[in-house]
Each structure stands twice: as structure tokens, then as C-alpha cells.
Amino acid sequence: MEYMLKHFAKLVFRYTYGKKPKGWGPRIRQEYDYYTPEDYYQASIVSILKAEDKWLDIGSGRDIFPNNHRLAKVLTSRAKETVGVDPSPNVLDNDLLDRSYLGFTDKVPEENYYSLITLRMVAEHVADPDELVRQIHRVSASNAHIIVYTIYKWSPVSIMTKFTPFWAHHGPKKFFWRVEERDTFPVEYKMNTKLELDKAFSHMGFVNTHFMYLDDCRTLAKYKLTLHMELLFRKFLNLFKLHYPELCILSIYKKT
């Protein structure tokens, strides 16, 4: 599965940036054969999504893929139906959804309905994991796939944000990743390890089909030199089968 996802991540990268990327960031990443956690997340959907799927994107915000609207448009066109739910009014600005629900997952009225459910950078904000998974179980059809992509609990950035006041979160995010203030939300970190995710999903009968740690070399990617440094350090660590300290996780579950 990991090899297959890397293959699809390469395809996503090529679709997004072309065979010969123009920007220095994508060119450097291509030089190091590095694909971001976003590439892998998008690749997981490309590999699973079928034309008959009814897709629920939990926490969808203003765009399903904030850095790849073109691919998001292609995939939502492929799905039979695409629905979003989010407690933030940002979801009302998402033009790729067939319909949207403002609120938490309990606001989704359909039961045993969705065959693909995605959570992109949502798990770190969940205050009650058991309730979320109960709602996912309620709305998901038999054999549905659930894709969870989130930051790893024990990454340096996660640890810093966990122990700093919320008002201090937006400044660094804006500097490093150009995030708007309305896209910064409080964090909980209650389902950001494999153990925590598996515990929450297994209680409702979901089976884990794949799990990956994804090296996240984007913290210092704003500058050429620091991006090179991050990727060189990652390459060195990978020689010893070690991960880069900053990590995301991708976990895929199936409803049995």
C-alpha cells in the first residue's frame, strides 16, 4: 500500500506542477524525490475514490484541497456527490460542494449513506473523538473508507502549539504558511497518534487498512536554503530508517 501511495503521490505532484516544475519549491522537492503529506493525502483519495462514491468531507472549509483547487475540482466531479460539513462558516464559501452543512457531524442528516469520508487536518481539533466516530459510523455506508490526515501529536510544532495560548498560534502560521486568521482554530490533540485513532475507530467496528508516518519538510520551506537543509537532514535520517522530526499521519479505515 505504501508503495502504491507513493506512486499516486508522484502522479499528483506531476499533475499539480508538471513534468518540469516552474517554481523553485517544487523543483527542489522533485530533486530530492520528496512528496509532501498533502501530496500523499490527495493521492490516497485519488487511489480510492470511485464514480459511484458519495463523498463527505468533514471540516471541509473553503476548499477541499487548499493548495490544489484544480485537482479538488476534478475529484469532486468524479464523485457521484460531494458534501461538506464544518462548524466554521468558511464551508459556505466552498464552491465544489453539492451541498454543505454548517455545524458538527451530527448536523449531517443522512444515515448509512457516504462511501468515502475524509478528515483533512481535523483530528487535532476534535474534543470528543468517540462522539465523532459514532457520527461517522452513523452516516457511513457499509464498506465505506474513512481517510484521516492530521499532524502527529509528538511533532515539535504540535508540542509548541499545545503549550502556547491560542492567541499566539496565528502569527507563526501566517509567517511560515501564509494562513489566514479565519483558518486558525483551537487544538485538542486527542486523536493524533495511531493508538488514539485505532482506539476510537475500533470501538465502532472500523478496521485500519493502512497507516503512514509522513515526513513534513514544510516548516522552513519558505526559503530555498532552509528547504534544502530540511530535505538534506531528512535524507540523512532516512538512511537509518528514521523519520524527520516533524511528522503528519495518514490513517485509512474501513467500515465492516
- Helix count from the secondary structure assignment: 9
Instruction: Give the C-alpha Rg.
Output: 18 Å
- Shape descriptor reads globular
Tell how many strands the DSSP assignment holds: 7
Q: How would you summarize this macromolecular structure in one to three sentences?
A:
With 256 residues, the protein is an alpha/beta fold. The protein has nine helices and seven strands, in the order H-H-H-E-H-E-E-E-H-E-H-H-H-E-H-E.
Descriptive key words:
alpha/beta; single chain; 7 strands
General description of the model:
The structure is a single chain. This protein has 256 residues and is of the alpha/beta class. The protein is 38% helix and 21% strand. The protein is built from nine helices and seven strands. It has helices at residues 2-17, 24-31, 37-48, 69-78, 129-139, 156-162, 170-177, 194-202, 224-239, and strands at 54-58, 81-86, 99-102, 114-120, 140-151, 206-215, 247-255. A seven-stranded mixed beta sheet has the order 3-2-1-4-5-7-6, sandwiched between helices. Strand 1 (54-58), helix 4 and strand 2 form a beta-alpha-beta unit. Helix 1 crosses helix 3 (37-48) and helix 2 (24-31) runs parallel beside helix 9 (224-239).
Give the arrangement of secondary structure elements.
Blueprint: H1 2-17, H2 24-31, H3 37-48, E1 54-58, H4 69-78, E2 81-86, E3 99-102, E4 114-120, H5 129-139, E5 140-151, H6 156-162, H7 170-177, H8 194-202, E6 206-215, H9 224-239, E7 247-255
Helix pairs in contact: 1-3, 2-9
